Structure formats: C-alpha cells, structure tokens
Amino acid sequence: MIGIRAWSLSILLSCWLLGGCGAEKENPAAQTPSGTPKAIAPEPNLSLGVAAGDAIQEFYEVRTPFVMPGGRLAIPLKGTGEVRVFGGEGEILKSFGRRGEGPGEFAALTAAWARGDTIEALDGDLMRITRFFPDGRTQVIRLDADRRGDTAPRGAIPGGWVTVGFEGFAESGRDLWSLQLFEKDGALTGELAQLEGIARISVPGYSGAHPLSPRAVLRAAQGRLYLAETLTPRIQVLSLAGGVEREISWETEEWLTPREAMSLVREAATSGDTPDHVAGQLLRTDEIPSRMSVFWDFLVDELGFIWIRSYDPVKHSFSFVRFLGGGYISGTSGEGGAWRIFSPEGVEVGVVEVPEGLAPAQITRDALVGIRTDPALGFESVEVYALTRY
C-alpha cells in the first residue's frame, strides 16, 4: 500500500514541478538565458569513498566537498579533522589537518571552502579559521566570538568570515541561531541576522526534531549571503553591510496537508524502509504542525543560478539524521529528484533532475559535486557529475 500511494504522490509532485502532465512543451532553449543548467550526466565522472580496503577513501562525517581551481577535489572530514585533496583521476594529492588543538589541527572541523588556491576551514569548537596556502604555509586566525560556531556557509566571504552561532535549544518551538560577521583579523563586526532552526519535540524516549520540522538554509555566493526558511517560498539576499538587498520568491501550491504528510511519514516509518531507531523516533509524537515546508534546500551555482529542491515529507523527514553532527543551517540534505532552476534575477527557467540519493554540495560551471550515504551502513562517498548548460 505504501508503495502505491508514494508512487502516486511522486507522479503528482513531478507533474506540479514540471508544469502539468500531458501539457504541450515548448522549446526550452528558446526561452532560457545563456548558461541555464540543462542536464546532469547519468553516471559520475569520479566516485571517491567506494574503494574497499583503501583507508584514504574511508570518509566519516563529510562536510561540503568542493572543486578547487585546476579541478582538484577537496573533501573536508569532521570525523578525522582532515581536508583531503584528490586529483582528477581520484589520486590523493595532499591531506591537511588532523584531530587536535595545535596549529593546523581541529577539535571540530565544521566547514571548509576555497578562497582562490587557499583552503580555509572553520573549527567550531575552538572558534578559529585555519588557512592552508598552496606553498605549504598555515595561518591560524582566532575569531573574537561570544559563542561557538556550529558551522559556516560554504564559500568565501569578501573581507572576512561569517559563522552560524547557536543561541539555544527550545523545548517546544524552533531553535535559535545568529549570523556573526568577522573581519579578516578575526575581530567580531556584529550580528547580521537572527534565524530559527529546527522545531523540536520532547516526548518519552525521544527529544529532537519533529518529523515535519522546517529548517533555515544559508548559502554564500556571488559575494553575498542567501538566507531562507523552508516554510515560505522566498530567499533573501543579504548585504554584508547589513540589510536585505533583494528577495527571490516563487509560486507554490498546497498539494498535501500537514495531517496527510504525517500519515505518509508514519507509513514509511513502519514499512521497514527506514532504520529502526529512526522509525521509532518518528512514531513517538502525535503533534501535527499547522504549517508545512514548501521547499527543503537550495544552492546557488557558480554562475548565480539558484537551484531549489521542493519538499517531500517522506524523504526529508528522515534527513534530520544526517544533521546529528551539526550543520542544520548550512548542511545539504536536498537529495536527488527534481530541482527547480531560477535565473540570477529570480525568474524560473526550468527543472533539472539530480541523481537519486545524491545530496548536492557544490555546483560549478560544468560539474555537480554531491554526497551519497549508504542507507543501510551509513558509509559516505563523494561523486562528481558533468553538468551541461544551454
């Protein structure tokens, strides 16, 4: 029964995303601006983390892998405190960092990104940025923070850094977070914004995210911060000087009520398709939220196009398990399926299918980098797919 119903809803959602099943399609190339994403290759050019017995390809708690200039692939690993850099053929080129508190070490490697040829990484526990230069030098900059940084938006920020600081848990309601802006010497400039995270519930045997919890999403691109919460079809573009520069919004339709969504989640949790501990958690609440997310994730690619993953209550109710190590705000969990594409100006220009089970982490001019998690064993791998554009 669950298979038939989930299949029917999948058809319904796909039709809604694509503008109606059976509708006559016009030539998309005649309507879309140059550079619009067109399609992702069905098979990856590169897969890492799949070579059995190779310790260098054992990935634990992958954090936002990214392609660097020249095609090198950097894979930050919170579990080991390393950033491993691989060549185009999958060969290991360099490994930066390790667990510890000394120079070049990490107590908690929570995010990493490229600033040109330099790798920058945030230690959220020690509140410092470590910079690994191409010539082998290492620079450590302590952030003058009044709270620890759970994560940071992937991508370099002009003139400094932004971290996501945790303000506090909420027994009933949404977690509270703040965006802290730092100068290049580590001085705290101030608070850019406050936002809400997941909605928590506390019932006998379980305290954590509600299965239908919304989330806030933060991205860095084009020298700006893109901020949204999933209950509203709107993305705000923030200036680092403070304030909202512009907004990107789109139309949505309510194709499922929160009560119907919760019913689907319960069916999936009892079908045997999810780990027992996840299913048990999801079945311990009768609370039905009054509102439901209208999208779940978004990314801004190298050319400024915005990729938006619409909400799937069954798939995304289980994605909170990935956030146990942090990254509620800047982590990726959109997974495969149909992603709606918007131009840099905010005009919807198409839909691109992302390979099933792949959580996109970075989209360059001609490639998509994503994380794949084995549903049974929890092993992580990183894949790079070719991307074509109009």
From the spread of the alpha carbons, the general shape counts as: globular
What is the CA-CA span between the terminal residues?
41 Å
Run of helices and strands = HEEEEEEEEEEEEEEEEEEEHHEEHEEEEE
CATH class: Mainly Beta
Assembly classification: single chain
Largest sheet: 5 strands, antiparallel
Helix content: 10-25%
Overall structural class, as computed from helix and strand content, comes to: mainly beta
Report the radius of gyration as a whole number of Å: 20 Å
CATH topology, by name, is Neuraminidase
Estimated share of beta-strand residues? 35-45%
Mean pLDDT across residues: 84
Q: Examine the secondary-structure arrangement and name the CATH architecture.
A: 6 Propeller
Provide the low-confidence segments as ranges: 1-25
CATH superfamily: TolB, C-terminal domain
> What is the number of strand segments?
26
Number of domains: 1
Number of H/I helices:
4
Task: Write up this protein.
This protein is mainly β. It has one domain: TolB, C-terminal domain (Neuraminidase, 6 Propeller). Helix content is 11%, strand content 41%. The strands form six sheets. Strands 1, 2, 24, 25 and 26 form a five-stranded antiparallel sheet that branches. The chain has a five-stranded antiparallel sheet with strand order 11-12-13-14-15, with no helix packed on it. Strands 3-4-5-6 form a four-stranded antiparallel sheet, with no helix packed on it. A hairpin with a 5-residue loop joins strand 22 and strand 23. The longest helix is centred in the N-terminal third of the chain and has 17 residues. It is globular, with a radius of gyration of 20 Å. The N terminus is likely disordered.
